[in-house]
Amino acid sequence: MNLIELSDYTVVPEGSGNGIKECNFSISRGEVCCISTDNPDDARLFLKALATLVHPLQGIYRYNNKQIDFSDKYNLLAYKKKIGYVGNDSAMVSNRTVRENLLLMRNYFEDSMSIELDENAMQLCEAFNILGRLDSRPGMLDHLELKVAITIRELTKSPDILIMEHPEELMVKGHSAFLDYIKKKFSAGLPAVFISNDRNIKENISNKKILIKNGRLSTEE
Amino acid sequence: MQITGQIGRKTLKSVNHISNLCALTYKLLRLLVQKHETGRALMKRVVIEQIYFTAVEALLIIIPIALIVGSMLIIQFAKLSGQYDLGKTMVLIIIRELGPMITALIVILRSATSVVIEIGYMNVFNEIDAIEMAGVDPLRYVCLPRLIGITSAVFCLFIVFDLVAIIGGYAVIWTTTYIPVGNFLAQIGKALTLDDIILSVIKALCFGITITVTCIYHGFSVKKQITNIPVETSRAAIECFFYCLLINLVISVLFYI
Q1: Global pTM value
Q2: Which residue from A19, A36, A69, A155 has the least number of CB within 10 angstroms?
């Protein structure tokens, strides 16, 4: 069964892109999809469309075979909660510390004010070497640390799917633990869609490749 | 024909804008009365932070302003009326009209503008998206606590302004000048009616809701360009002040005429 299925999906362009034109796409458990593109803006837009962050001009978005209604933003929250999205434009709430950001979802849904991260989050923070930055504001982190923190936030929400832009950035500066972690997750069946320029990721991790050219999607052989 | 078209377009735009503000107010008030099982602790914290910023930190500004305004008015009216009906005049001027408007102005300048900037910034830098991706409704996490916080703060600041302007103003005049002010405080006590207190509460509620909703709306109106933030902030500040003046006028007309 497809986890996400887009039919005849069209999204208006952002930046210098062509937008997404009448695309058909589906992803199910165990699939790891790598995107190549002639225009990074289109690839990013496609990821945002998958994350339900942009609304379609036309087309149907099905999540677990259920059609999503984009007319009410409130309805989308239940789907967004299950999607792990790490884009280059992803952010953390700047007037909260990294710890509070990581705890936002738990504190909100469990109605608590706990400041203790759960074991999984602590392990990831340790592996990614950001334990010392937990009580800093996101603005004090460099680009890589911020991306690491956002990735941890998205992974610890136990998503149904991971959508990520350039995961290879996390594999430099001693973040090789990330590769092991996501490989473990992918082998456990977590589907993923990512944009990557890294040949190693493309060849060794992904089992599905798609090309976005002039805003149109095609499967790469 | 062109002028008519322009007037028509402007009118439609204004009607659309007002109806959007009303829709946002309705949505927030509906959220306020709904019972939610999740996010209450987090919301409570944001409310407290907002009250601290809007009310407690504003005390350092509002107290001196209230003292200056109070003393100034007491001096002028004591000279003008020769103590006759001085208390009544002060209630009329400070509690009914000037107090609410000056308080609203201070809240607009200090807090409302910062709400537009904060939400605008969150919008531009995808922080609202980050909150949504956590499955959290930004209206509940960002907007509702600000509505509760600012409205409560406006009400508290009304009381502080009125008390400081009247009692503090009286104390300043009494200790530093020889102007006779008679049994000023007794006159105030006699002139103050239950209507004045109820109206203060109504004005605080209306001002608080209007200021917050206008600022939240303008904050979310900021498109993905940081240069839009000052434009929306300035628009929001002017609009808030205008709406507060209008509401003050309407309430005064309804209750006192």
Answers
A1: 0.90
A2: A69
Which helix H or strand E contains A164, and what residues bound it? strand A161-165
CA distance B211 to chain A (A): 22
Q: For residue A216, which of A33, A16, A46, A14 has the smallest C-alpha distance? A: A46
Q: Are A212 and A39 in contact (CB under 8 A)?
A: yes
- Tens-place pLDDT, residues B172-205: 777 877 766 667 778 788 888 888 888 888 998 9
Distance from CA of B134 to the nearest CA of A (A): 5
Local structure of A85: helix, strand or coil: strand
Inter-chain residue contact B136 with A90, CB threshold 8 Å: no
The rounded distance, in Å, linking the Cα atoms of B98 and B101 is 5
Phi-psi region of A173 (alpha: psi -120 to 50; beta: other; left: phi over 0): left
Alpha-carbon span A25 to A2, nearest angstrom: 10
Determine what percent of chain A falls in helix, strand and coil, rounding each to the nearest 5: 35, 25, 40
For Cα atoms B92, B94, B96, give the angle at the middle one, nearest 5 degrees: 55
Q: What is the DSSP string of A13-75?
A: --TTS--EEEEEEEEETT-EEEEEES-HHHHHHHHHHHTT-S--SEEEEEETTEE--TT-HHH
> B45 touching A, CB under 8 A?
yes
Mutate to test the interface with B, among A81, A93, A147 (most CBs of B within 10 A): A93
Q: What is the DSSP string of B60-104?
A: HHHHHHHHHHHHHHHHHHHHHHTTTTHHHHHIIIIIIIIHHHHHH
Rounded Cα gap, residues B197 and B188, in angstroms: 13
Contact A98, A130 (CB under 8 A): yes
Which residue in chain B is spatially nearest to A139 when comparing CA positions? Answer: B125
- For residue A203, give the amino acid letter: E
Give the pairing of strands A216-219 and A208-213.
Answer: antiparallel
Neighbours of B128 (CB within 10 A): 20
Angstrom distance (rounded) from CA B211 to CA B152: 12
Interface test with A, best of B24, B133, B146 (most A CBs within 10 A): B133
Write the pLDDT tens digit of every residue in B92-110.
Answer: 888 888 899 999 999 999 9
Q: Which of A135, A177, A128, A132 is nearest to A152 (CA)?
A: A128
B residues 118-137 near A, CB within 8 Å? 118, 121-122, 125-127, 129-137
Q: Tell me how far CA of residue B6 lies from CA of A59, A164, A219, B162, B193, in angstroms.
A: 37, 48, 52, 44, 48
Residue B233 amino acid letter: T
Establish how many alpha carbons lie within 13 A of residue A9's alpha carbon, considering only the half-sphere containing its beta carbon. Answer: 26
Torsion of CA B109, B115, B118, B122, to 10 degrees: -150
